[in-house]
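Interim report, section 4.2 (structural modelling).
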Amino acid sequence: MCYIMRSRPPTAAILSSVLPLVLRWNQVPGQTSVQSSCPSRVMFSMLVVDPDLIDYNGLKLSFGSWSSGIYQISISSDVNHASSRTPGTHLAGGNGRPVEGAITFKPDNSSYWFHFFSDGVTHLTSKPLPPGKEYKVLVGRGSGGTGPFYGKFGRALTETSDPPPGSLVLGSHGDVYAPGGQSVFKDPVSGRYVMVYHYVRKNETFDGQSYLGINFLDFSSGWPVVVD
Ligand SMILES: *[C@@H]1O[C@H](CO)[C@@H](O)[C@H](O)[C@H]1NC(C)=O
Ligand SMILES: *[C@@H]1O[C@H](CO)[C@@H](O)[C@H](O)[C@H]1NC(C)=O
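Predicted structure of the assembly:
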């Protein structure tokens, strides 16, 4: 099973490869429908992007949204429909805070679940962004897969003040600029944890190609640390 995301700004939908729509949103006056191969017309009240599925007391799907926050709902075991009300549990961001690409992950040996997200603006223009506004990978942790998640200093990821809650995993450094869009998994060959992400190079045209970054993560301190 896999999920795909279709986006045609300003709306987007998460679609299941199996059948119709995982999420159905109530019609909101004045909003446009997504043109897609989906059998039914659907209306959205927020951007529904960046699906992440975990198995924690049943299947849970998180998604969203850049400025409206990250939410999580229950999904039926046949993965064809939401089995809890949308938008669901608020996990991070919201209130205009730029947060997206969230994933929830539990290392085997950890008693914590970690909620990784990209904070800021992904790099799409030829000019650098104001310092600190570019993408970076932040994380919070919690005792379960449905939150609440907190940064190292105890601030909940749902707080929307500046600086953002959550602890830095990876930010711009050297020629690596605006890393984000991360995914985390356990490498079955080495048995180690891996984070993959995209970034652009400071010493190249900002709106040129993106690169794929791959690093191991070490969770032994209780927080993920990027290592070679
Ligand atoms: C988990 O802990 C076991 C026992 O301490 C260790 O052998 C194993 O390497 C650890 N796995 C990871 C991925 O850290
Ligand atoms: C930019 O820097 C990276 C290493 O930091 C290097 O591999 C790459 O070739 C550089 N690109 C250019 C155009 O110099």
